[in-house]
């Protein structure tokens, strides 16, 4: 099972000091956080993609390429690649290039984003969001698997005898997760291709997550990729820790109360009760994360959101120390002990390459 962190790259004032980091500071902080993730033994760093203030990660492959050059082991991913407003040809080229530079330590998560105005900025119509996601990914899937592509669709110019370059490393495309919070069509799409399904899992109650994951698992089996239990599932989560739970609540409350994503709404206590947010001790994080298995089944990737709402870099790095030293080692052991035989590990370039070699023998 893989453990890591994902960032939305927000530039948010620190409510305790009133200071807002510059864009440069925020970008550099994200890099520092990724390097720290590898240092403390995490497996994955994932960045979002946004094209509007107050977010900075408009070019994920640029950031991940830089991080790839400074790491050795970390899997580099997106937590959203906008399949609706990016040209699938450019996605195919950019991520294949990154895959070569990172020696295969690359995957990506397709999503539609959460900002409506981005569609017209890139010449698209938000009312076509699902249709764009379906058509664009169908083309991307072919571009990575066919050396010469002839294609015609609704949303871009046709392709005739087109070859995307560079070709995927070792002939193995990057593994794709389809990320969704609420769209069953995206769970269906992930199941159809036998790809991974990532549920954001930071806002919604457990029963909603359970329904989405069960839909994906059922349809994965329907399309003949394996049993429902063998489907590849990832979950998000968000935590804030101190060794003493009261200290964690006291320190995090001012950030929670004004956070752009959930401030000025339910209380911190209500939100932690009704959603996967955990604010407390490392042991409380362990217990709540292990409980995800009760409604999502045995899954392959757990990512945590930790660097948002204006939290200073020093605090985030302290959180990562706790995560790497006290939380993830226990989670690895406990999840491994609970996992039945036959449930696959998270896909990696090496495992996908080995599987492809077996099928071509």
From TrEMBL:
Pfam families: Bac_luciferase. Gene3D superfamilies: Luciferase-like domain. The keyword Transmembrane does not apply. Residues 1-21 are annotated as: Disordered. GO terms for cellular component: cytosol. GO terms for molecular function: monooxygenase activity; oxidoreductase activity, acting on paired donors, with incorporation or reduction of molecular oxygen. Residues 1-295 form the Luciferase-like domain. Keywords: Monooxygenase, Oxidoreductase. PANTHER family: BLR5498 PROTEIN (PTHR30137:SF8), LUCIFERASE-LIKE MONOOXYGENASE (PTHR30137). This is LLM class flavin-dependent oxidoreductase.
């Amino acid at each position: 099972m893989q453990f890591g962190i994902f960032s939305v790259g927000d530039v948010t004032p620190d409510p305790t000091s009133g200071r807002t980091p510059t864009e440069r500071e925020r970008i550099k902080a994200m890099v520092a956080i990724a390097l720290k993730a590898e240092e403390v033994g995490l497996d994955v760093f994932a960045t979002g993609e946004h094209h509007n203030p107050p977010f900075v990660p408009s070019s994920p492959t640029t950031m991940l390429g830089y991080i790839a050059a400074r790491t050795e082991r970390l899997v580099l991913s997106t937590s959203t690649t906008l399949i609706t407003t990016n040209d699938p040809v450019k996605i195919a080229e950019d991520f294949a290039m990154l895959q070569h530079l990172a020696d295969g330590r690359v995957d990506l998560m397709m999503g539609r984003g959460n900002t409506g105005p981005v569609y017209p900025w890139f010449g698209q119509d938000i009312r076509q969001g699902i249709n764009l996601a379906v058509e664009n990914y169908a083309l991307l899937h072919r571009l990575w698997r066919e050396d010469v592509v002839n294609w015609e669709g609704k949303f871009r110019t046709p392709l005739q005898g087109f070859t995307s370059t560079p070709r995927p490393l070792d002939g193995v495309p990057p593994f794709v997760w389809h990320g969704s919070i609420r769209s069953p069509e995206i769970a269906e799409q992930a199941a159809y291709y036998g790809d991974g399904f990532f549920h954001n899992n930071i806002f919604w109650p457990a029963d909603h997550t359970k329904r989405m994951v069960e839909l994906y698992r059922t349809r994965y089996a329907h399309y003949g990729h394996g049993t429902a239990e063998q489907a590849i599932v990832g979950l998000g989560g968000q935590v804030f820790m101190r060794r003493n739970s009261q200290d964690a609540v006291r320190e995090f409350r001012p950030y929670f109360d004004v956070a752009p994503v959930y401030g000025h709404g339910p209380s911190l206590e209500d939100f932690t009760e009704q959603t996967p947010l955990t604010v407390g001790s490392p042991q409380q994080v362990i217990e709540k994360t292990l409980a995800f298995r009760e409604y999502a089944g045995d899954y392959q990737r757990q990512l945590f959101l930790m660097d948002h709402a204006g939290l200073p870099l020093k605090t985030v790095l302290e959180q990562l120390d706790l995560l790497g030293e006290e939380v993830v080692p226990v989670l690895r052991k406990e999840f491994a002990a609970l996992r039945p035989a036959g449930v696959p590990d998270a896909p990696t370039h090496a495992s996908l390459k080995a599987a492809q070699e077996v099928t071509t023998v």
